[in-house]
Amino acid sequence: MKNELVAKAREAMKSAYAPYSHFHVGAAVLTEEGQIFTGCNIENSSYGATVCAERTAIFKAVSEGHRRISAIAICGGPKGVVESPAFPCGICRQVMSEFGQADMTVYVVDRDEVLEFTLGELLPHAFEL
Ligand code: THU
User: Fold this and answer.
1) Of 32, 54, 113, 128, which one is the catalytic site residue?
2) Strands of 23-31's sheet, edge to edge?
3) Among residues 6, 14, 39, 99, which one has the fewest Cβ atoms lying within 10 Å of its Cβ?
């Protein structure tokens, strides 16, 4: 599953719309039912309306009725060349915590390997109402 998720994140990175930063990101989320949804970053000339790849993928899953996610793979780099790990931003970590448990797996693609974390490691003390 790890390899498939990483391959789909890499593929999704090709759709990145990043004419301002030129930093291309792809993500693939695995739902608890075993379905995969992918996403890319989508920038905007206002900058503030930009959406990260992780949230694109998660929102696609949720909008299709899948609210429980068990893993996500993330892949990113300048012009789509992965030179170092593209860690998820704080907003995306918080969104992951809305639909995933603290033990969900977060795969972050590095140049020659795939790093593996739990969401709890990346976002301890997530905000909850
Ligand atoms: N970006 C993501 O897609 N995911 C992250 O977690 C961090 C940043 C995107 C947003 C923007 O299009 C570009 O990377 C540079 O910040």
Assistant:
1) 54
2) 36-40, 23-31, 69-78, 100-109, 114-118
3) 14
Q: What are the two backbone dihedrals, phi and then psi, of residue 25, each rounded to the nearest 5 degrees?
A: -135, 140
What pLDDT, in 10s, does the model give residues 9-36? 999 999 999 999 999 999 999 999 999 9
Calculate how far, in angstroms, residue 41's C-alpha sits from the geometric centre of ligand 1: 6
CB of 9 shorter than 6 A to ligand 1 = no
Distance between CA atoms of residues 107 and 99, nearest Å: 16
> What predicted TM-score, i.e. pTM, was given to this entire model?
0.97
- Distance set, CA 28 to CA 3, 4, 66, 85 (Å): 11, 9, 14, 15
C-alpha span between 61 and 30 (Å, rounded): 9
